[in-house]
Amino acid sequence: MKNRSKSFTAAAMLGCSVVLPSIALTQGQPQSAGAGQPMLFQPMTGGTKANYQTEFTHSFRSELNRGDQSLGDFSASRFGLDYSRLFTTSETYTWGVGAGWDYASFDVAAGGPVPDSFQSTYLRLSNQWRIGDQWSLRTDLRPGIYSDFQDISGGDLNAPFNVILAYDYNSSLTFVAGLNFNYQSDVPFIGGPGVIWRFAEGWQLRAVLPKPQLSYSPNQEWMFFVGGELRGITARVAEDFGRAYNNPALNGDNLSYREIRVGAGARYRFHRLFNVTVEGGYAVDRRFQYEDANLLLNGDGAPYVQISINGSY
Predict the structure, then answer these.
(1) Whole-angstrom Cα distance, residue 163 to residue 181?
(2) pLDDT digit string (tens) for 47-72?
């Protein structure tokens, strides 16, 4: 039986938030619907709608440790692309299909048991139901290859899955509850309740993982925000990966990399086809977790920057 090590820091955050499925990378967030519409059901005209997003983020250098042993400094970068198309077949049901690619690279000092990079290539299969005037249900499945791409086998296949139920109490307040499942992750199940509250003109509080956020939109073009983010990526390393580090327990293991961030940023909407978001802040917790080997590498905090471009048509 596999020995899964749970992070207390991550688990402590789950009691007040729910993981929403990502529009693109790990965990972006759906656009807000108009007044009186359930948050997670996005009404459309014309029957179809396409969404795209690309994102680049970089966490700067800080020390990486294995227990009390320093492994030198490291930095992390990540780039992702995601495209999906939604099809409305009735007033209460929309399904979607898409694809994405997520690439993470790590600059680790020699001897640190971390691959240079790993990535995921996946399909996106989604469903959205509106149930009456106030309830909505959304599912999101992302089957694909999650690997360092050194040797591809059945163990590199994974299918992360989200399910979210939302209740639109009124035009200003939505309650959500949901569950995220990722077999490869060191924390395979994440879920719980959350709330989205538009408490004043232009202001919105999203008390939901992975990105709890307080935002202000003075007009249709600008949005400013502060908040936090729990983000990560999980993949399987090569069958002989541990040989270079004299640690056979690492061979073919699942490796999760996670950051907990706090930051602020701004989004500018040039057009519905082209929105730019820039943010920066501090990653207060960074860590690598090998699942079966039960090996934890802790990184010190470091500044980060991020830019993303998205749109729909």
Answers:
(1) 9
(2) 899 999 999 999 999 999 999 999 99
Whole-angstrom Cα distance, residue 121 to residue 7? Answer: 26
Between CA 124 and CA 141 the distance in angstroms is: 6
Q: Do residues 115 and 255 lie in contact, with contact meaning Cβ atoms separated by under 8 Å?
A: yes
pLDDT, tens only, 209-257: 888 999 999 999 999 999 999 998 899 999 999 999 999 999 999 999 9
Q: What region, left, alpha or beta, does residue 149 occupy, with left being phi > 0 and alpha being psi -120 to 50 degrees? A: left
Q: How far is CA 28 from CA 20, 170, 212, 276, in A?
A: 8, 24, 11, 14
Angstrom distances, CA of residue 90 to CA of 93, 129, 133, 164, 300: 5, 10, 15, 20, 50
**Distance between CA atoms of residues 306 and 121, nearest Å:** 21
Which of these, 70, 143, 164, 48, lies nearest to 100 by C-alpha position? 143
